[in-house]
Amino acid sequence: MANSTFKFSFIFICLALTYFVPSAYGDSFVQTRGTEFVVDGRPFLFNGFNSYWMMHAAADPSERNKVTEVFSEAAANGLTVCRTWAFSDGGDRALQRSPGVYDERVFEALDFVISEAKKYNVRLILSFVNNFKDYGGRAQYVDWARNAGAAVSSEDDFYTSSVVKDYYKNHIKSIISRVNTFTKIAYKDEPAILAWELINEPRCQSDYSGKTVNEWVKEMAGYTKSLDTSHLLEVGMEGFYGDSLPEKKQYNPGYQVGTDYISSNLIKEIDFATIHAYPDIWLAGQNDGSQNTFVQRWMWSHWEDARTILKKPLVFAEFGKSKKDPGYTENERDTFLNAVYTNIYSFARTGGGSMAGGLVWQVMAEGMDSYYDGYEIVLPRDPSTTALISKQSHVMQALAQTLRRPNMVRSTGPQVGDVSRGKATKPHFQARTEMGNNRVHAPHPRRQRYHRHQTHHHRNHSWRNLHKLHGQH
Questions:
Q1: I need a labelling partner for 342 at 20 to 30 A (CA). Which of 201, 357, 389, 459 fits?
Q2: What integer pLDDT is reported at residue 327 of this predicted model?
Q3: Residue 177 covered by a domain
Q4: Which residues span the domain enclosing 273?
Q5: Which residues are CB-contacts of 178 (< 8 A; sequence separation ≥ 6)?
Q6: What is the pTM of this model?
Q7: Which residues are the active-site residues?
């Protein structure tokens, strides 16, 4: 079976080299058809990346070349989707200085990011707000409401306060109705935007059931769709299970964070589901084997649920490995990424495109030391990782081509996550054959995932500590 798997993987790599020709997406929006993404009725699969910093960097004209460099290198390696922030609330280089008050200079920076993505045929997932405090987040909205005399007491009031919700809705409207100063196209009419994201990694400490966040998602998803029916919409969830299906909680990393992957992604206005995974932090102190097993189960469970319960596509929207981990080597990072990529490909293949793609955290340009968080991948400087990323781009593009000819996919036989006879089987968390049996190193738990850009005139604090669990143990 191993030789057969390698044979078919090799076939798809060869097909990728033949089929992979980046093309402009013109005026076509990404849509969903059952559990797959489609463009002009044809299957759309992708390999992509996160670069949260783009608007913030572009707000300084001297740093805009970094945005261009990343899109250029990403496109050259077949990366076709980028997830980035469409928020910066209060503080340095704020997009929204106060409720409804925007800095045109920073808005033009976001315009630039979108226009550059369009130039390099990269589609964007734009997030409206942060769960965490950096770049403002829920805390900033609650502070604004408190200063206006609203009766709010905690960050979780973000989900329930009418004042805060009005502020947030106004931000959604301001983003969606914006007319790009470079392209002259309204954001709501821009096919370079693949999807909107309601919030980056929502959490709610006051209600671990997921019901509070779920009610908020219902309201905000409905509002967003009332303004824009052209673009897809997703929540921004990490994938934690809540109370709607208690038996699914066994797949959580030992705690809840106040969200419910099933109920919130079943909301009709939500077009696709997302998951994130940082097993080295969520399972800090456990060995690499346990962490790998967790990722295997996490991916498989959510993919099966997306396919059979949600009946919507799934995107693995954040994953990575930090250079700051003790004993880190590039080979260990490549082994981890390769294992994730293998499963994304296999789920996409056996599920008819239901695992649409993955977004590695994160791609940066050279000379961005103040933004580096340990997870940075600088494509021209990290050749082995770049080669791995490029290969994944090619095989996903080849698979999209073969999905247009279903008999060709079926002829290759069962793979990881086989759905033969209507039942999905659990996959093995494995790297592609050429990577051998290298194991993923279990990193030190006490480190920070992303840093906010820091200079002498910026707020000097880190993005967040994910090892500080905002959940119920």
A1: 201
A2: 75
A3: yes
A4: 2-22+34-464
A5: 107, 110, 111, 186, 187
A6: 0.87
A7: 201, 318
